[in-house]
Amino acid sequence: MKDYDVVVIGGGISGLLSALALSKEGKNVLILEKDEYVGGVCRSYLVDGYLVDTGPHAITRLETGPLKELMDRYFDVTPKFIPFGIYYVRVGKKIRPFPWTIKNWLTFDLLPTKDRLLLLKLLFDTLYMLNTDKDLSMVPLSDILPSDSSVITKKFLDWLSYFMVGTPMEEAPISRFIDNRSHKPSSIPYVGGLYNLLITEGSADQGYPVGGLQSIVDSILKSFPKNRVDIKTNEEVLKIRCNGGAEGVITRKDSYDCDTVLYSGFASDLSNLVDDLPREYTKNLKTIKTVNSLTIWLGLTKKVFKNHGSEMWIDSDPYAWVVPTSNYDPKVAPKGKQLVGFAFILPEKYDLEEMKKKALSAIFDTIPEIEKCVDMIHYQELIPEKASWGINSGFGNVKTPIKNLYTIGTDSEKRSAGVSRAAYSVLRCLEIMKGGSNREKRR
């Protein structure tokens, strides 16, 4: 007799969301997590009285996106979100709101007027390309950038590429920047994203969870139906047993029989767990490139960042995304103090200690007054996306060549980023498991 209907390998956000959805639909689910905690890179913990997240996060598409759909369907306890506010672009001491609309773009004086006009023309050229057979997923952003663009314009687009795709603009496909918000299989690619770029403010449906990222994890755990989900931490999976299809897993401590296995680890490591995967399939998985980041959390004795929103530092070295989380939820910092996360994308090869020094120097060089009011410093080396969305990089897929074995997470679905991308993969997996594979092929 089988032990469980479904075994979920990995207790990160995609594994937890999948376990919740399947248990609510009557399945008996086991989550196996090799670490001593669940949540992965979607959790929070205390450091010297400050509640730090695993990297800064903006939870996107909260009005109609994948996490909203999963919350509406399956959450008994729903996390609360504070509007994320404005994305500010910083160049030296100049700060301007991100130019979401054409009107704002034309007055965005951090970039030269000529560059703004040329880039606007390129946007409409891209609209024209939608009516051709041009595959925008294979056209890098750098290909449409005029060669005589200013240095700061190139840095601006390069910043967007690193933080939206995880690669420099030479590897970033145009399609990533005009992604359609709708996650329905029948939706038209790109068009929705272009409309939002031209007409709306892109950050309007983004939020920060009250209580930090941990509140999302806690809401999932509190929503699990009674006696439907078992969680075993500190239990690493060594093998997925297959015999015409997935039928169980072997860990360092035990083995478990099941009908279905959901794997939320790194897709590139799947061949270490499953014997006899097709060569071409494994070859593609091995070309996946992760997005590596360094986050420096600073506790400050006074409120240095006063705006409600985050900052994009496009001329710092390395580039930075700055999120003062205590501006959204004062309780994540001791009374009268401020907690700020500084995220930096790491290159493929790096010396961590050198990058820590370089990144901290970039913070103090950009805003010198910060150095005098540092109360706490905490470093995190993270993988916020398990697959970069680069043109020459591999990418996984929810459906695998093995019957009843699925991969979920940020390396299995090319949509959005972070928690939203993980949620997209979960929705896709649920659809296929319910017999939606034909629609999957037509998508």
Give a brief rundown of this model.
This protein is of the alpha/beta class. The chain has helices at 13-24, 66-74, 102-106, 113-129, 151-164, 191-199, 214-223, 279-285, 325-328, 352-366, 418-433, 437-442; strands at residues 4-9, 29-32, 44-47, 50-53, 81-83, 86-91, 94-97, 207-209, 229-232, 237-242, 246-251, 255-263, 291-300, 309-313, 320-323, 338-345, 374-385, 405-407.
Secondary structure: helix percent: 25-40%
> How far do the termini sit from each other?
37 Å
Q: Judging from the principal axes of the Cα atoms, what is the shape?
A: globular
| Oligomeric state | single chain
Text of the CATH class of the largest domain: Alpha Beta
> What is CATH's topology name of the largest domain?
FAD/NAD(P)-binding domain
User: Quick one: CATH superfamily of the largest domain?
Assistant: FAD/NAD(P)-binding domain
Series of H and E elements: EHEEEHEEEHHHHEHEEEEHEEEHEHEEHH
> How many domains make up the coordinates?
3
Content-based structural category: alpha/beta
Residue windows where pLDDT falls under 50 for at least 5 positions:
180-200, 437-443
Annotation, overall tally of beta strands: 18
Count of helical stretches: 12
What does the main sheet amount to? Answer: 7 strands, mixed
Mean pLDDT: 90
Radius of gyration: 22 Å
CATH structural architecture of the largest domain: 3-Layer(bba) Sandwich
Tell me what portion of residues adopts beta-strand conformation: 15-25%
